[in-house]
Amino acid sequence: MNILITGAAGYIGGKLVKSLCKKDWVDTVVGTDINEPSFKHPKYKFVVRDIRKSMDDVFENNGIDTVVHSAYVLPPIHDKGLMEDINKGGTRNVLEASVKAGVKQILYTSSTTAYGFYADNDEPLTEESPLRGNDDFIYAKNKKEIEAIMQAFILSHPAIAVTIVRPCFVVGPGFTNPMAEHLQKKLVMMPAKTLPWQFVHEDDLINVMALLLEKRVAGAFNITGEGTMTFSEMVKMLGNIRIPIPWPIIYPLNNLSWFLRLTFMTKFPSPGMRMMVHPWIASSKKLHETIDYKFKYDSKSAFRDFAISVKK
């Protein structure tokens, strides 16, 4: 396979590049991003490219037959229009180029955030659950909207195998995002009432994605580790102190801090906190029934690996 990975300098994209370069069934890996990574390998070629710009030459010059679309603005930014343009506009651009090039498979990295955070969520969420990503939280909103774009694409291009992976919160030594930074504060302010979370280790996610590519498996799959973890357990494992604050107080306080760009207080808008207080647990049953892969980590051991890396 000659595989193109968008967002190749990012957390997931970067790890997948390294993994695929080791596979004997992969001939070439081409990565695109706006920042050039330091990784070098004989199979790997990097092209600096804004995901919204023409990709035709990248496909043509490298004989691309497989695409992994992982380019996405993960940390919330204040310019919502730019965030949506990159996320949705970039996706449409990649799909158009893929059709022109006649690729065989497209794997899109979605997220269980596409289901949204609601009190009446299915428990657990399955691939048949409605995608209701919260409209006031751009990350989840765009995940929902891009999945709608992908579904329309599948109907229009049945000859292309489309794979959608929906991992829950990904952790491991490379885990860096606003939530990771928040949990590492000595005093961790969060809603007084929270529900347990589930995690998937970065290595398990990468291994599953590689298998889905190797076997050309199409369809949508939740990717989650077994079990859950409470926020008290997370904070304690990191050696910090949890400061519970009632929802009517923390929500406006966090929103004001976000509006004023007080990054020492918060790096995400208040709607994102709903993922802490509403049921948001997904099942990987479909994945386990489809491919033969045994997860190396459950939720707690995955988070523990992140905690160990932080304390080194």
Describe this structure in words.
With about 300 residues, the chain is of the alpha/beta class. The chain has a single domain, classed as NAD(P)-binding Rossmann-like Domain (Rossmann fold), CATH 3.40.50.720. Helix content is about 40%, strand content about 15%. The chain is built from eleven helices and eleven strands. It has a seven-stranded parallel beta sheet, with helices on both faces. A two-stranded parallel sheet has the order 7-9. A two-stranded parallel ribbon has the order 8-11. Helix 3 links the parallel strand 4 and strand 5. Helix 1 packs across helix 6 and helix 3 runs parallel beside helix 4. It starts with a strand and ends with a helix.
Structural key phrases:
alpha/beta; about 300 residues; 7-stranded parallel beta sheet; single chain
Class computed from helices, strands and strand pairing: alpha/beta
CATH structural architecture: 3-Layer(aba) Sandwich
Low-confidence stretches: none
Number of strands: 11
**Main sheet: strand order:** 3-2-1-4-5-6-10
Number of individual domains: 1
CATH superfamily heading: NAD(P)-binding Rossmann-like Domain
> What is the average of the pLDDT values?
95
Oligomer: single chain
Give the topology, please.
Blueprint: E1 2-6, H1 11-20, E2 28-33, E3 44-48, H2 56-62, E4 66-69, H3 80-101, E5 105-109, H4 138-156, E6 161-167, E7 169-171, H5 178-183, E8 187-191, E9 199-201, H6 202-214, E10 219-223, H7 231-237, E11 241-245, H8 247-259, H9 274-277, H10 285-290, H11 299-311
Parallel strand pairs: 1-2, 1-4, 2-3, 4-5, 5-6, 6-10, 7-9, 8-11
